[in-house]
Amino acid sequence: LTILQDTREQCPLRFSPYVRVEVTCLPTGAYSLQGFTDRVAIERKSLPDLVACTGRERERFIDVCRRLQAYEVRAVVVEASVLDVLAHAYRSRMNPQSVLGTAIAIWADFGIPTVWAGDAATAANLVERFFLRLWGRAQEQAA
Known about the structure:
Elements: E1 2-6, E2 20-24, E3 31-33, E4 40-45, H1 47-54, H2 58-68, E5 73-78, H3 82-86, H4 96-110, E6 114-116, H5 120-142
Parallel strand pairs: 1-2, 4-5, 5-6
Antiparallel strand pairs: 1-3
């Protein structure tokens, strides 16, 4: 199993030693799976990143979401919880309801679910397990 990490990732997820990570330029998203780059894209966001995508970087983020729509399997994985948003556990003045509203909008308008992982370690675990499941299913279908 080889996880592909985009070259633009500034603070990459730390996966287990059981998977290989290859840094490459992905057309969309922060992570994909080798052999599935045309079908799978995961965008990763820290809480400050997500808040910025709700405000000053909204148009850029919406462009990313439009590109993600083309993938069979896509998601935004957030290194925070909904409770972190509601508690306003970030520096921006952005209203927590606006942040959550953006997450709901990308799900409703673009079909891109937001996975609230809670923290970076859990985000890495969830992405790795998700990719492992996709990879395993593909191996079964090929057999």
